[in-house]
Amino acid sequence: MIRILLVDDHAIVRHGLKQILEENPEMKVVAECASGMDALRWSCANDCDVVLLDISMPDKSGIEVLKQLHEEKPKLPVLILSIYAEDQYAVRLIKAGAAGYLTKECAPEIVADAVLCIAAGRRYISPAVAELLAEDLCLSPDMPAHTTLSDREYQILLLLASAKTVTEIADALALSVKTVSTYRCRILGKMRLRNNAELMQYVIEKQLAR
Length: 210
Description:
By secondary structure, the chain is an alpha/beta fold. The chain has helices at about 10-20, 35-45, 60-70, 85-95, 110-120, 125-135, 150-160, 165-175, 175-190, 195-205; strands spanning about 1-5, 25-35, 50-55, 80, 100-105.
């Protein structure tokens, strides 16, 4: 039996995923968590075979949860299931230790196949992610400016580029306005940009936002 922990802040998404996964008699959803902190607390006290993890959550992001799980339980496979297109986060998260990356637009049977794959000790790499990983290997030493950003900085970069205000970003990520402002200044400094307009132009030119 493959024991699965579902981590997503939307109850209806968790319900749908549970139905999809438990159609296979080999799978059992043993716990559901609506936040990153809840997921870390549960995994600290319990065991499972696979974690199905969203990126966007109200407290601790899926990126942070993945890193902490990878440190505490390096053999526990984590499958990322996100609204974000592969070219925004997939390579970064695979490098951070994710066993696979899927978008929420994928077919239900693909989610089940991916869980079976990573539970067997393999990585689930879709054709789209495989192409991105191949491109990443071919990057020249002269790396684009956004590759110098941390995961949290990159997340905030994309939110700023979507024309969200600092206050809106703070609310979405459960951070203080001051913290988001600090991240914004750090991003601009690392990328040698002067303002949000230049930041948005960069994201458009590099086709980071879809």
